[in-house]
Design brief:
The chain is an alpha/beta fold and about 350 residues long. It is built from eleven helices and 13 strands. The chain binds 6-O-phosphono-beta-D-fructofuranose (F6P). 6-O-phosphono-beta-D-fructofuranose binds next to strand 10. It comes from Candidatus Hakubella thermalkaliphila. It is found in: Cytoplasm.
Length: about 350
């Protein structure tokens, strides 16, 4: 019997479990055995795998997180990493691997294909920044969480006549900040793709005051930066196994500057990992299910080094190489639409 290994890597997000469930159900229906690889690529390095059955994925469609665990392990940064992966693929007799994650996790999958290990990808990141797909699992759930947070900040901002700066994840892409800012009616939206200007932000706050609006909400992506500074605000100077710094803190910098310039009481809120937690939305569960099924079909048809993807309303596939080539920047037309409201 042919065997498929499945893993989730990188930052988790709601609805990975829905995708794992779909992979297991579709694979079993086609007569494959499925093995869950624990904690991302680390599980394959260490030979930490378990057989998945119908029971393993029963009752998980609504659960956030990932039953397989995850990690930011880069096998290509470990001594003998690629060899260990090769050995464990042979030892567990895996015919293919389905990897769920963002550009880091899927970048490894692409490299494994080049080494002769068949792998396909499923787009999964709240950043929604993978190329070649209109959608990545987790984005809609995170969007709902952030929009809800902005709604809640509105009421307290209004009571206290304050400026609230809310910091939103997304690393180098502004998708989550832009769309949650749009949905939550933020008064200013700052994204990494467009450098911001303090004069513009303060002018906007003043205009609102003149219209009788004594509070303002600023939605800022964690990777956004002002015109005069070329670097992003980071929590730590060190980088992870994929070379990423840990972003965080821009909201406090902006809040301080706004208070200094306008004299208005200003507060910063960093939403942090709340954005990746909890129950997936119905939309995410459905997309995760469709993408998981597609990934198994790719394996079944021998279409390796590909990623299941979303194009419009359709599920399709795209070469992994294309998906991980660069960060997908926000659609500037959407940014212009959002700007109409502030
Ligand atoms: O890539 C997903 C993401 O949530 C980013 O938006 C964020 O910058 C990063 O992960 C945080 O990583 P960690 O969970 O390792 O702190």
């Amino acid at each position: 019997m042919k065997k498929i290994g499945v893993l989730s890597g990188g930052g988790d997000s709601p609805a990975i479990n829905a995708a794992i469930r779909a992979v297991v159900r579709k694979s079993l229906a086609l007569g494959y055995e499925v093995w869950g690889i624990k904690d991302g690529w680390r599980g394959l390095l260490e030979g930490n795998l378990e057989k998945l059955t119908l029971d393993s994925v029963s009752g998980i469609i609504f659960q956030g997180g990932t039953i397989l665990g995850t990690s930011r392990t880069n096998p290509f940064k470990r001594e003998d990493g690629p060899q260990k992966i090769e050995e464990n693929v042979k030892r567990f007799q895996l015919d293919a691997i389905i990897a769920m994650g963002g550009d880091d996790t899927l970048g490894v999958a692409h490299k494994l294909n080049k080494m002769g290990i068949p792998a396909v990808g499923v787009p999964q990141t709240i950043d929604n920044d993978l190329c070649g797909t209109d959608y990545a699992i987790g984005f809609d759930s995170a969007l709902s969480i952030v929009t809800d947070a902005i709604d809640k900040l509105h009421t307290t901002a209004c009571s206290h006549h304050r400026v609230m700066v809310v910091e939103i994840m997304g690393r180098d892409a502004g998708w989550l900040a832009l769309l949650s800012g749009l949905a939550g009616g933020a008064d200013v939206i700052l994204i990494p793709e467009v450098k911001f200007n303090y004069d513009d932000i303060c002018r906007r706050i003043e205009e609102r005051r003149q219209r009788g609006k004594q509070f303002s909400i600023i939605a800022v992506a964690e990777g956004a930066a002002p015109e005069e500074i070329s670097t992003q605000v980071t929590q730590k100077a060190t980088v992870d196994a994929f070379g990423h710094v840990r972003l965080g803190g821009i909201s406090s910098v902006i809040a301080e500057e706004i208070e200094k310039r306008t004299g208005y009481e200003t507060r910063a809120t960093i939403l942090g990992h709340l954005q990746r937690g909890g129950t997936p939305t119905a939309y995410d569960r459905i997309m995760a299910t469709r993408l998981g099924v597609k990934a198994v079909e790719l394996v079944h048809n021998g279409q390796f080094d590909m990623m299941a993807c979303v194009k419009g309303n359709q599920i399709d596939s795209v070469p992994l190489e294309e998906a991980v080539a660069k960060v997908k920047p926000v659609d500037m037309e959407l940014f212009e639409t959002a700007k109409l409201f502030y």
